[in-house]
């Protein structure tokens, strides 16, 4: 759907405004679709992101600040995310041997199992959401979005 149809606005102050509104609307749509799919597994995209991060470092554990630095959505409330994941036995937290003030977090077997069960659904959703783009356009879109964030 064209942006002008979606927000019921034909004129934009500039091409920059239209481009950024397109990014915002698209981001909201993608997150809504991912949330809907992940809801079937009783998990949020933010929780999935934490599991993905921990799985990538497995078997090594990460500190809360390491996880926060890698999150796609820079939420300040990593502890709350970890509490919910720990309640479901998807992650485990423990004090570091080298410094008892540091809490290290690792993914459990159940967490890895959940990611494995979710993988085909995540991939299918990604393919569905980008089905109108060629592989070349997908690469180009990634390149353009990275270019947009160059000053980040």
Mind sketching the topology for me?
Blueprint: H1 3-7, H2 15-39, H3 45-57, E1 62-63, H4 64-70, H5 78-87, E2 91-95, E3 103-107, H6 109-129, H7 135-148
Helix pairs in contact: 2-6
List keywords for this structure.
7 helices, three-stranded antiparallel sheet, 152 residues, 8% strand, Arc Repressor Mutant, subunit A, elongated, mainly alpha, single chain
Task: Describe this entry's structure for a reader.
The protein has a domain at 42-146: Orthogonal Bundle (Arc Repressor Mutant, subunit A), CATH 1.10.10. Helix content is 62%, strand content 8%. The chain is built from seven helices and three strands. The protein has helices at residues 3-7, 15-39, 45-57, 64-70, 78-87, 109-129, 135-148; strands at residues 62-63, 91-95, 103-107. The protein has a three-stranded antiparallel β-sheet with strand order 1-3-2. Helix 2 crosses helix 6 (109-129). The chain starts with a helix and ends with a helix.
In short:
With 152 residues, this protein is mostly helical. The protein is built from seven helices and three strands; from the N terminus they run αααβααββαα. The chain is elongated and about 60 Å long.
